[in-house]
Design goal:
Distance between the termini: 39 Å
Number of strands: 9
Largest sheet: 5 strands, parallel
Helix content: 25-40%
Oligomer: single chain
Low-confidence stretches: 1-7, 9-35
Strand content: 5-15%
Radius of gyration: 18 Å
Length: 296
């Protein structure tokens, strides 16, 4: 597949030239506490929420991958005997199964190829790009400018009586199932964990327009969409013989509307080093801690 690869949410490039994305200050992250995670080979599969674009230090520019993302933190804490992080910004379930191109246009093999018979732990964080999160956030942010107190995004995606985003989530479930099946075939004895996504918007209320440019009445709608995506991932994991690590609950109160010293996910113009609407170093640390707790 020869198609451009971008981070999960490309809102900033559609609304403004967000040069500030790389100008934030990375806050120090402490190593997560040691947990009883498998100590054999660990393979991390996923998209930009896993790879952590623009979080220092970037060690793979084709995939915009940081060596301080949650898989790296978990591997160091668990003492994994070997570690392969093949997560990549822009990845979909198709890229895990069949490969694609990275941000620099360099071809990538299927992520699942990194999973070997002797692998002890596999983590999977995927699905956001399959439902088109980048386009959703961009469309909703643009629509909010003309109707900041309304629900232009919800009105668009539910026109005609069908919720298009819920339909996309339902259509993604069998794709995630196919990923888990491929992982299990490659590593029959591995512990497989599916991660959800952390909170982007506040868990209650109507957001913080224009800091996070989502119209007030659209915030509850999009919050529900994200929760529906996480629920689908949890259900699909259970049906596919994997477990589900909840990273949403520990991120409540740490959404993009919170202060730069509190938030796990950055807003349109990041104040910490991260891509817009993506986890910063604190968010990656938080997901690592949640995953280690899940593994213990």
């Amino acid at each position: 597949m020869n198609r451009p690869r971008l981070p999960l949410m490309r809102t900033a490039t559609r609304l403004a030239a967000v040069a500030a994305a790389t100008a934030g200050v990375l806050l120090a992250a402490t190593a997560p506490a040691v947990a009883a995670a498998p100590t054999g080979r660990y393979v991390a599969l996923g998209d930009s929420y896993t790879s952590a674009p623009l979080v220092p230090t970037q060690v793979d520019l084709n995939c915009l991958r940081s060596n301080r993302n949650y898989p790296s933190l978990v591997a160091a804490s668990a003492g994994s005997s070997s570690f392969a992080d093949v997560s990549c910004s822009g990845a979909t379930t198709e890229d895990i199964l069949y490969g694609g191109d990275g941000a620099l246009g360099i071809a990538l093999p299927p992520q699942v190829n990194a999973v070997t018979a002797g692998t002890a732990l596999v983590t999977v964080q995927i699905g956001g790009n399959d439902i088109g999160f980048s386009g959703i956030i961009g469309d909703c942010a643009e629509a909010s400018v003309s109707s900041p107190l309304g629900s232009p995004c919800k009105d668009r995606f539910t026109a005609g009586g069908t919720d298009q985003l819920r339909a996309r989530i339902a259509a993604t479930a069998p794709k995630v199932t196919a990923v888990l099946r491929a992982v299990r075939q490659a590593a029959p004895n591995a512990r497989v964990v599916v991660l959800g996504y952390p909170a982007i918007l506040p868990d209650s209320g109507y957001g913080c327009w224009p800091v996070v440019p989502i119209a007030y009445q659209d915030v509850p709608y999009l919050r529900g969409v994200q929760k529906a995506l996480n629920t689908m991932l949890a259900d699909t994991a259970a049906a596919g013989g994997a477990s589900y690590a909840d990273v949403y609950t520990p991120s409540i109160g740490r959404d993009a509307c919170k202060s730069s010293g509190t938030r796990w996910v950055e807003g349109l113009v990041p104040q910490n080093s991260a891509a817009p609407f993506h986890p910063n170093a604190r968010g990656e640390q938080g997901m690592a801690t949640a995953l280690l707790a899940h593994l213990s």
